[in-house]
Fold:
Amino acid sequence: MTLSKAAVFLDRDDTIIRDKGYLSDPEGIEILAGVPEAIRILNSRSIPVIVITNQSGIARGFFDEETLRTIHKRLLALLREQGAVIDAIYYCPHLSEGAVRKYAIACTCRKPDTGMLIQAARDFGLDLPSCFMVGDKPEDIEVIHRVGGKGVFMSTGKHHDTGHRADFIAHDLIQATQWILSTMRKESCSPDSGT
Structure:
């Protein structure tokens, strides 16, 4: 199979929704301003929108996987009500020092390890070096750089001092999306060095 598709990966907390600190109540979801509009723009261009999120609250014993699935189901429904579609959500429940034995492992899916990206690439036929990751933490930028893609740092969270590692710094998801689309256009118009 030839991989040629680009996608936009999104972190969850302080990128799509307000970070409430180990959110365990679906009613606590607060979608950030501009998020539905930004996702609609990507949807309109048939660019897959995929969430990859570390959820160590499971390994820490704060909530279980069923609770997380309920939270994500409600998040997807709230976005759909505004015409915005997320194509998939991948999460890592692990933490090597976690309190729940089943999840207290050193895995290959916890960002900045690339397991979730690689699984999404298999599932969606993606070319990871052509993909983008938007997030508010250093590991969000590092994970996409490890596979050759580009990272957009969101200055929406607590980690403002780490943006220098990113390919672009955005103050909201709309600005991030505009930069991503502009970069995609430039790269699609680049002369082929093989000719």
